[in-house]
Backbone:
């Protein structure tokens, strides 16, 4: 056998081995994340000095990058113990909002600190800095939401400042959002100081707590919604804006129509992403109000511009 023949035989053998090696069944692919993710403190990770902050805190990611739109980064849920917090840091590509669901905490935006009572949230726009510190004696239930200007990118620049003992402004010198049921109105109730419109006992009440002008990314709004017993939200088509829901209280069902239509039970502590091209409907099947926190993220800046112009 010549050297040339031996080379051809060797090449054929390698090719046959390659075909044999790849002719078996493909490896099992990772299962997609569940549509509905429940808050479970047993899954919280304990981390110390978050962004060079005081003490340690525990949290978990309920919704991860891309769950709503490519620019959506995450929805975190956790607890900030007394004497702990998240240190002062800048965001130059993303914007973020810390939400407290009870108690009170000291929020910092651009070096100015004030006490905010929950349930409430404070947004940190792109190009600004923020922090949070629990100066009280009881744990604070906490949520964190984040959207990027660039899909798949997260950034932070720590300042090495816990903000523990920071001087406090008597009135916050930054934008805050309140989750107050007394501010909710049925559809059609508009105008400054408008009296609640007469409505059916099953009418959904809501409020746009933060509008599109507040945010610099494709983040479009924060809505606060309560569905009374026996009530349902309208079927909502998400053609231009995806939404992330967090159930603040109550139980019910969500119906999502998309590639795979589904109806599932939801309860307090659940996070539910609704993606572009899907439709959603929430129904209250219990005897207590179903309370929803809603985060809207536009498909792109053009879609957000239409929201800003009222279209």
Residues:
């Amino acid at each position: 056998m010549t050297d040339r023949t031996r080379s051809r035989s060797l090449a054929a053998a390698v090719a046959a081995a390659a075909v044999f090696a790849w002719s078996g069944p493909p490896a099992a692919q990772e299962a997609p994340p569940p549509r509905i993710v429940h808050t479970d403190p047993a899954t919280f990770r304990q981390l110390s000095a978050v962004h060079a902050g005081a003490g340690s805190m525990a949290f978990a990611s309920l919704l991860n990058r891309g769950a709503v739109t490519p620019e959506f980064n995450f929805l975190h849920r956790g607890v900030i113990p007394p004497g702990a917090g998240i240190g002062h840091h800048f965001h130059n590509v993303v914007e973020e909002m810390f939400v407290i669901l009870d108690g009170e905490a000291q929020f910092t935006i651009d070096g100015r600190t004030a006490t905010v009572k929950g349930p409430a949230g404070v947004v940190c726009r792109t190009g600004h800095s923020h922090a949070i510190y629990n100066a009280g004696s009881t744990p604070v239930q906490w949520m964190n939401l984040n959207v990027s200007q660039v899909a798949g990118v997260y950034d932070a620049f720590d300042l090495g400042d816990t903000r523990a003992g920071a001087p406090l402004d008597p009135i916050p010198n930054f934008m805050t959002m309140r989750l107050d049921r007394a501010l909710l109105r049925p559809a059609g109730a508009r105008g400054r100081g408008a009296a609640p419109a007469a409505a059916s006992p099953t009418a959904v009440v809501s409020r746009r707590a933060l509008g599109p002008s507040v945010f610099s990314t494709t983040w479009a709004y924060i809505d606060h919604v309560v569905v009374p017993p026996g009530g349902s939200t309208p079927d909502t088509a998400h053609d231009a804006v995806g939404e992330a829901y967090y159930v603040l209280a109550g139980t019910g069902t969500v119906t999502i129509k998309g590639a795979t239509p589904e109806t599932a039970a939801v309860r307090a502590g659940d996070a539910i992403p609704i993606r572009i091209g899907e439709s959603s409907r929430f129904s209250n099947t219990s005897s207590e109000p179903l309370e929803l926190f809603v985060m809207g993220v536009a498909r792109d800046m053009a879609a957000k511009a239409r929201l800003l112009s009222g279209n």
